[in-house]
């Protein structure tokens, strides 16, 4: 696998710009807690590498937060010892929502997805241009591609909006991640076996723009299952792409493109809900550093996935998930 110097330079420039900008803002907003540079870089690498590989970025980030000690529910205080609140007690919420490291860290792992979004925009800028031209009525394939991305996003966008709070309360745990990793691995092994047995069935080229609206919506519905931590959005869209008649590379590329509105929607929703709390806890610098590192590592991960999946399919990632699930089960459950 070779990565163009243009991509590396673009990613490095993005990370540098974000970091310098963060230094300028950080001076005026003292954080309530410390996130070390090492932790910020670690979370950025984990997010960037796992976001587009079918191994569950959310699951890895949950486990990483555990290892880094970012799971504290203790209410933070300001320098004078006064309790800090995300939402102060009110008649509607008598107990309020305390400001904690865990709340900030859970938000952080979603916000730094901006780096992964930037990576896909850099890699697939030609498709962005084609879709824009299609929107202007000058490219039928571009308009169909845009339509299919929107249709594949709508189911998970609606489900994520409706189930967000319930998922945060009940599914962000090592046990849920382990279950998602195992179930996803079994599904991937089945899908890979099905694809090889039916390799002659489907589209002549398997281009994302050739998907019918019904199949695009089907991929979106499958993506809803990725709301369970440990399952993987990338995995579900690639498997659904197989079933829609796409080859591994085209299924992966459509997964990247569908990820743009999905990741952007999640980041915007999380930023609106608890972004200020995250900044109050960690400050700007570590957030921007994490996003910059995520952009660089995403560039590398996308190129690696396309190279690997074109030759070996999904099976290798399935076995990795099973090994990871076993390690986590021994560490957390036994």
Radius of gyration: 20 Å
Terminal residue distance:
39 Å
The biggest beta sheet reads: 2 strands, antiparallel
**Total count of strands:** 2
What does the average pLDDT come to?
Answer: 86
Residue windows where pLDDT falls under 50 for at least 5 positions: 1-30
Looking at the structure, what is the overall shape?
globular
Could you say how many structural domains there are in total? 1
Structural class: mainly alpha
Written as H for each helix and E for each strand, in order along the chain, the element string is: HHHEEHHHHHHHHHH
List the strand order in the largest sheet: 1-2
Beta fraction: under 5%
| Discrete helix count | 13
């Amino acid at each position: 696998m070779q990565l163009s110097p243009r991509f590396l330079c673009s990613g490095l420039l993005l990370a540098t710009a974000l970091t310098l900008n963060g230094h300028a803002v950080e001076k005026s907003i003292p954080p309530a807690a410390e996130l070390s540079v090492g932790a910020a870089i670690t979370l950025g690498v984990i997010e960037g590498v796992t976001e587009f590989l079918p191994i569950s970025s959310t699951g890895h980030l949950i486990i990483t937060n555990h290892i880094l000690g970012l799971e504290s529910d203790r209410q933070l205080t300001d320098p004078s010892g006064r309790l800090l609140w995300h939402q102060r007690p009110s008649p509607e919420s008598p107990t309020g929502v305390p400001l904690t490291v865990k709340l900030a860290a859970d938000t952080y792992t979603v916000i730094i997805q901006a780096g992964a979004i930037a990576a896909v925009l850099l890699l697939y800028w030609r498709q962005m241009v084609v879709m824009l031209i299609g929107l202007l009525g000058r490219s039928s394939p571009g308009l169909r591609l845009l339509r299919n991305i929107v249709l594949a996003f709508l189911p998970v966008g609606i489900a994520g909006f409706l189930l967000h709070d319930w998922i945060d309360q009940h599914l962000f745990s090592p046990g849920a991640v382990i279950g998602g990793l195992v179930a996803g691995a079994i599904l991937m092994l089945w899908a890979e076996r099905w694809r090889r047995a039916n390799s002659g069935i489907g589209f002549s080229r398997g281009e994302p723009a050739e998907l019918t609206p019904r199949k695009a919506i089907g991929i979106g519905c499958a993506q809803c299952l990725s709301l369970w931590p440990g399952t993987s959005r990338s995995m579900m869209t690639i498997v659904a792409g197989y079933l829609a008649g796409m080859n591994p590379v085209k299924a992966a590329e459509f997964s990247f493109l569908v990820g743009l509105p999905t990741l952007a929607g999640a980041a915007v929703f999380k930023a609106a809900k608890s972004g200020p709390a995250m900044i109050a806890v960690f400050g700007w610098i570590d957030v921007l550093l994490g996003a910059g590192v995520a952009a660089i590592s995403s560039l590398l991960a996308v190129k690696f996935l396309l190279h690997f999946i074109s030759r070996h399919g999904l099976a290798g990632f399935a076995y990795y998930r099973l090994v990871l699930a076993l390690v986590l089960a021994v560490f957390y459950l036994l």
